[in-house]
């Protein structure tokens, strides 16, 4: 009987420790990112093929934004610095929601203004307004609407964590009260898989 209880104890401990050591995120979204083609801040072609097998963070911004985009970009710079410091291999992609205005050189100037490290952060543009609106809605369940005669674009202010298989795993606040440490920990977990 004592031996039986000892075996049960070992099995329970093994199960408990196995669960604690799991590299799985809980309550993931599972949204599939649709394919896209774009141009980077350096004028280079860029598509979902370039992100195959990568863990990445995404957001939606535009350079003439007067509200959420500047703090979002500063917050993403902070996240990038923490990820790089910890040696976590994560790409960052910022999709312009105002592609007519945000030509590659405009995006580059915007990134430079915030001290972006382009080694793992790409700004993309050169698709139509309709394409980015559809892509944002289908892949990230967010808006990217520019109305006629308005220089501002209605868009979401979240950050998204995308797994190696191209599915959106998590969504976080990107403008205020950003859970920076949680994003870094989640990215680390997914990158380790």
What does this molecule look like?
The protein has 193 residues and is α+β, with helices and mostly antiparallel strands. It has one domain (26-192): 3-Layer(aba) Sandwich (Glutaredoxin). The chain has five helices and ten strands. The chain has helices at residues 2-20, 69-85, 104-113, 129-140, 180-192, and strands spanning 31-32, 37-40, 45-47, 56-61, 91-96, 121-125, 144-146, 153-155, 158-162, 167-173. The strands form two sheets. An eight-stranded mixed beta sheet has the order 1-10-9-4-5-6-2-3, sandwiched between helices. A two-stranded antiparallel ribbon has the order 7-8. Residues 3-22 have low confidence and may be disordered.
The CATH architecture would be 3-Layer(aba) Sandwich
What distance lies between the first and last C-alpha atoms, to the nearest angstrom?
A: 40 Å
Poorly predicted ranges (pLDDT <50, ≥5 residues)?
A: 3-22
> Helicity, in percent?
25-40%
Instruction: Return the domain count.
Output: 1
What's the total helix number? Answer: 5
- Taken as a percent bin, the fraction of beta residues is 15-25%
Brief sketch in words of this structure:
With 193 residues, this protein is α+β, with helices and mostly antiparallel strands. It contains 5 helices and 10 strands, in the order H-E-E-E-E-H-E-H-E-H-E-E-E-E-H.
How are the SSEs placed, and which strands pair?
Elements lengths: L1 H19 L10 E2 L4 E4 L4 E3 L8 E6 L7 H17 L5 E6 L7 H10 L7 E5 L3 H12 L3 E3 L6 E3 L2 E5 L4 E7 L6 H13 L1
Parallel strand pairs: 4-5, 5-6
Antiparallel strand pairs: 1-10, 2-3, 2-6, 4-9, 7-8, 9-10
Helix pairs in contact: 2-5
